[in-house]
Amino acid sequence: MGHIQPIWSDPAAYLARIRPEEAVLFLDPNALAHAYARFQRGFPGLVTYAVKANPERQIIERLTALGMAAYDVASPSEIDLVRAACPDARLHYHNPIRSRREIALAEAAGVASYSVDCLSELDKLAEGLADHRVDVAVRFALPLAGASYDFGSKFGATPARASELLARAAALGFIPAITFHPGTQCTDPKVWAQYIAAAVGIAEAAGVRPARLNVGGGFPSARDGREHDLGLIFQTIREATAAHFPDHAPELVCEPGRAMVSDALSLAVMVKAVRGGDLFLADGIYGTLGEQHQIGLTRRLTVIPGDGIPRGAEARDWRVFGPTCDSLDVLPEAVSLPADLAEGDHILFHSLGAYSTAMATRFNGYGAARLVPVQSLYPA
Ligand SMILES: Cc1ncc(COP(=O)(O)O)c(C=O)c1O
């Protein structure tokens, strides 16, 4: 696995020498180690990495080398990915819907925890798994704001239904657990406290003592231009659990995706053409910038001039298109960048380590990105 140290000092050095046309995702291994340490030291329980946020093999290998030994996976191919890099990893298959074939594959791979949010999927699990000595985490959802969009519209039982599911999971011989996801990029610690308060009600109504309480992902990155205090969120989770589960508190688990990887990687995309007030980039919403269309643009951008001459003009609003022939391939809002921006410049989108390459399609043949380690994303 042994990773070589980055040979490039920073993105600008690489871009000046290589002048890549395809998108480049720059990784700062120290920033990844920092994010890992923040969770390992601060979170009062088991930390699992949600592979979906960035499934690059290099990321899984580096996290494993740092000590990450538990992963949240959403499919058999993510299971294979993790097993290849970390054969003994504890696997949590927390995509609440699985085919019978996927259940069989997961059991063969030794998955330790499953989530469910409806009776039919719980019964499917009970039929499909020969061995019930695994966690079944009942996922519930509350109508709370605080995240970038509503995660409860697809998954999550009501608290009343979750109680029924929890009681049934325990009766079926599974290790009962509860889980929720506050929604991605959730900036309000109170949301976790409200979920934990509801979880105790679910457990009491079911008459079941959950072995584990998984408080999801959702932890925010700096994509909105602010450093968020994860320590405050961890403290809120710790205090809410102690207050609501005074006896026999469940073991806490979290499954961060975004906050583990986002700020450790920045994406460079070349300006292919300038047409009036429009920029045409070498990648767009069908590629690595897909999530920008869904949850808004990262607030952290810098320009690396192609000719090495700093862009000095005042900022103006640009309409920014991607490279495909589709007119929907445009960033969701006007982007404020120097007025003298030119063809061949690169735009660095920071905090782009999560849901960038993971969501890229190859529409029109674009969307590829290479991953390049650097010593620093932000040279002094
Ligand atoms: C079950 C589950 N866990 C964890 C995550 C990771 O969430 P985030 O990237 O907001 O931390 C997701 C994201 O979709 C998820 O569905």
Would you summarize the structure shown here?
The protein has 380 residues and is an alpha/beta fold. It is 31% helix and 20% strand. Pyridoxal-5'-phosphate (PLP) binds next to helix 10.
Explain this structure.
- The protein is of the alpha/beta class and 380 residues long.
- The protein has two domains: 11-25 and 263-373, Lyase, Ornithine Decarboxylase, Chain A, domain 1 (Beta Barrel); 29-261, TIM Barrel, CATH 3.20.20.
- The chain has eleven helices and 17 strands.
- It has helices at 11-18, 29-42, 57-66, 76-85, 100-108, 119-128, 159-171, 189-206, 230-244, 258-261, 290-295, and strands at residues 23-27, 46-47, 49-50, 70-73, 90-93, 113-116, 135-139, 175-179, 212-214, 251-254, 265-275, 278-281, 301-304, 315-321, 335-338, 346-349, 369-373.
- The strands form two sheets. A nine-stranded parallel beta sheet has the order 2-10-9-8-7-6-5-4-3, with helices on one face. Strands 1, 11, 12, 13, 14, 15, 16 and 17 form an eight-stranded mixed beta sheet that branches.
- Helix 8 (189-206) links the parallel strand 8 (175-179) and strand 9 (212-214).
- The model has no long low-confidence stretch (mean pLDDT 96).
- Residues 50, 52-53, 72, 94, 181, 184, 216-219, 255-259, 354 line the site of pyridoxal-5'-phosphate.
